[in-house]
Amino acid sequence: MTAPELDSLRLLVLVGELGSIGQAAATLGIAQVSASKRLSFVERRLGLVLMDRTRRGSALTPDGRVIAGWARRVLTELDGLLDGAEALRTRHEAELRVAASMTLAEHLVPGWIGELNRANPGLYLGLEVTNSDQVAVLARQGKVDLGFVESPGALPGLASWKVAGDHLVVVVSGTHPWARERRRLTPAELASTPLVVREHGSGTRETVGTALREAGVEPVKPLLELGSASAVRNAVLAGAGPAVISALDVAGHDLVVVAVEGVHFGRVLRAVWPAGRRLDGPAAELLALATRKPS
C-alpha cells in the first residue's frame, strides 16, 4: 500500500474539523473539485470509504473519522519535526565553534572575531585556544567549524586557506652573551644550544625543527618546555635561555633579536576545516574577514 500524500491528509483532517469539503478546500486554497478528487484518490489508496457524500453535503464516515484522527497525529509529529529542524538550523546559524593556535589566538583571531560580532550582534561564538596539532584534530573530527593553525606540515583530511604570513626570530634577554655579539649565529650554534620551547604539537616548535633540519643540523634536547607563547617569552625575559618565537610576540617586550645565518623561519598561518565540507554562515564570514587584505 502506498501512503497518501501529506496534503491529502491535511485535507481529510480539515473536512472532519470544518464539516465541509468546500470549506476545507478554501482553507487550503484549492478548488473544491480538486479537493474531491484528492479525497477519492486517498480512499482508493487505503481501500476504505472515508466520505459519506449526499446531496446535503459530505461528512466523514466512521472509518474516515478514525483515519482523520491518525492523520492528525501524523501531521502533529511532522510539524514537531519541522519546528525542531528549524530550531537546530537557527542554532547552527547562531553559534560558531572556533579553535586557534596560541599565536593566532593572541594576535589575530580576536580582531577578526570582533568584526564578526559587530556585524552579527546575536552571534554566540566559542573559541578554544590550543596548539596547532590539537586544532587540526578538532577540525578533522568536526568538533569546531573553523580552525586556525601555524603548522608547516601536511594537514590530511582538512581543507585550508592562507590567512596571514609570519616569521620566527631568535630572542634572548639583554644579559645573554648573544645580546652583545654583533654577528649572525650559525645554524649549528643555534641547533647545539638548548632552547626554551613550546610543547610537542606546537606549530612554532615544528617550524623551528623543520627549518634547522633543512639547514642540515639537528636540534639538541630543549632547556625548558612550556605550554604557551607568553610563558616562553617570560622565561627568556627572566634569563632562562634563548628561544625562537613569533615576531608578533616580540613587540613591546625587552627582548634582543639575534640573526641566524642561512635559516628560513618564515611560515604560513592557515584556516582549516574538514575536507569536502562547504563553509557557510558565520564560518564563511569569519574566513572572509581573516583573508581580507588590509585597506
Low-confidence stretches: none
| DSSP summary, beta strand count | 11
CATH class of the largest domain: Alpha Beta
Largest sheet: 7 strands, mixed
Q: What is the SS-derived class? A: alpha/beta
| Distance between the first and last residues' Cα | 65 Å
Shape: rod-shaped
Total helices: the number is 11
β content, as a range?
A: 15-25%
Helical residue percent? 40-55%
Spell out the helices and strands N to C.
HHHEEHEHHEHEEHEHEHEEEH
The appropriate CATH architecture of the largest domain is 3-Layer(aba) Sandwich
Total discrete domains: 2
The name of the CATH topology of the largest domain is D-Maltodextrin-Binding Protein, domain 2
Radius of gyration: 33 Å
Q: What is the mean pLDDT?
A: 87
What does this structure look like?
The chain has helices at residues 6-18, 21-28, 32-46, 62-94, 102-107, 109-119, 132-140, 187-191, 203-214, 229-237, 281-291; strands at 51-54, 57-60, 95-100, 124-129, 146-149, 158-172, 196-198, 224-226, 243-246, 256-258, 266-274. By secondary structure, it is an alpha/beta fold. It has two domains: 6-92, Winged helix-like DNA-binding domain superfamily/Winged helix DNA-binding domain (Arc Repressor Mutant, subunit A, Orthogonal Bundle); 101-289, D-Maltodextrin-Binding Protein, domain 2, CATH 3.40.190.290. Helix 1 (6-18) packs across helix 4 and helix 2 (21-28) packs across helix 3. The protein is rod-shaped and about 110 Å long.
